[in-house]
């Protein structure tokens, strides 16, 4: 489940700046206790889901903030252990092991994620397919890249079929109908896990909080607080910011061929796989989505990357409540009017 350098912090406005689109890092916030009645700021970073997950919070009680951050990481870690196809004891691993044999009882959180995957598969005509794991494990670490043998991909491509994943909500089970099928939830599980972490922060009484996992940002800010400022990277030139957004509540999610990839024989192999070929999609360079509803945003960027620039735009346009930018492989940049109006100077 392995699927961005920050704009400067404007201290006078008391906002945190970070950039969405490539390996995330929070801008420097002083990790000091409350001074002279000023609100306390806390930030933390931990490796998780093949990336770095950053948490930033603001409040009055340092101990409350620290406890909330620890609880949020605990919750996210538990969900990763449940949903990672790399973890041999995970529920995903159990579903894969029981493929073609029997249904597996799963937790409600995993059922919700798999239902979102099914809906995105239906909406995208199969451009998003959680059973892409059937073609074998790719490793996109540039220091140790690995890919399945072409013969293995060809032999198992028939097993990539989201319609063969049976979800029984009444029984609380998931079942892959053919032996050899495998689920890889990497394109659909990260955002719900980050959202669960944010919910824990809220449950601890934190009104102003942000969770950033590899450029997928989930933010909350109470009516009395200023919004978070999130930088938007240019997928064509990831070192450059296109601008920034003020985000009070919701999601900023980025997908791109520049995030996790390796080069071999002159070709870029990135982590967004096309279910029709079993190889990395040859669609846009990147997609950034902004919305307030998890189910609308989740998986949409991956599907758009597979559909190609034109098909991706069409799917995004048909998704209410979502604004987007798409950087095409031809160097063109498409920004929806609603998002263009919200972009601020970086």
From TrEMBL:
It comes from the Bacteria. It catalyses: L-threonyl-[protein] + FAD = FMN-L-threonyl-[protein] + AMP + H(+). The keyword Transferase applies. The keyword Transferase applies. InterPro entries: ApbE, ApbE-like_sf. Magnesium. Can also use manganese. Keywords: FAD, Flavoprotein, Magnesium, Metal-binding, Transferase. It is an enzyme of class 2 (transferase). GO terms for molecular function: metal ion binding; transferase activity. Mg(2+) binds at residue 187. Its cofactor is Mg(2+); Mn(2+). Its EC number is 2.7.1.180. Belongs to the ApbE family. This is FAD:protein FMN transferase.
């Amino acid at each position: 489940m392995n699927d961005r350098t920050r704009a400067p912090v404007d201290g006078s406005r008391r906002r945190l700046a970070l950039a969405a689109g490539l390996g995330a890092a929070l801008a420097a916030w002083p990790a000091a206790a409350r001074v002279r009645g000023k609100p306390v700021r806390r930030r933390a970073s931990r490796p998780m889901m093949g990336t770095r997950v950053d948490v930033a919070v603001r409040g009055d009680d340092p101990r409350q903030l620290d406890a909330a951050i620890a609880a949020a990481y605990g919750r996210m870690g538990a969900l990763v252990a449940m949903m990672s196809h790399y973890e041999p004891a995970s529920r995903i691993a159990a579903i894969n092991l029981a493929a073609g044999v029997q249904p597996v009882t799963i937790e409600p959180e995993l059922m919700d994620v798999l239902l979102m995957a099914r809906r995105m598969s239906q909406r995208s005509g199969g451009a998003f397919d959680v059973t892409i794991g059937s073609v074998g494990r790719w490793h996109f670490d540039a220091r140790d890249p690995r890919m399945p043998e072409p013969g293995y991909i060809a032999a198992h491509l028939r097993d990539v079929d989201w319609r063969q994943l049976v979800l029984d909500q009444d029984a609380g089970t998931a079942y892959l109908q053919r032996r050899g099928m495998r689920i890889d939830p990497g394109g659909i599980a990260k955002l719900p896990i980050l959202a669960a972490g944010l919910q824990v922060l809220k449950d601890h009484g934190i009104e102003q909080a942000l969770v950033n996992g590899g450029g997928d940002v989930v933010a909350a800010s109470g009516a009395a607080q200023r919004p978070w400022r999130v930088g938007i990277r240019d997928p064509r030139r990831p070192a450059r910011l296109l601008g920034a957004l003020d985000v009070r509540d919701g999601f900023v999610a980025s997908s791109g061929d520049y995030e996790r990839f390796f080069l071999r024989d002159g070709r870029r192999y990135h982590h967004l796989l096309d279910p029709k070929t079993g190889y990395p999609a040859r669609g846009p360079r990147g997609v950034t989505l902004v919305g307030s509803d998890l189910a609308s945003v989740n998986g949409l960027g991956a599907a758009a990357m597979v559909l190609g620039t034109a098909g991706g735009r069409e799917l995004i346009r048909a998704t209410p409540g979502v604004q987007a930018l798409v950087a095409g492989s031809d160097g063109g940049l498409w920004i929806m009017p609603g998002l263009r109006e919200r972009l601020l100077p970086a």
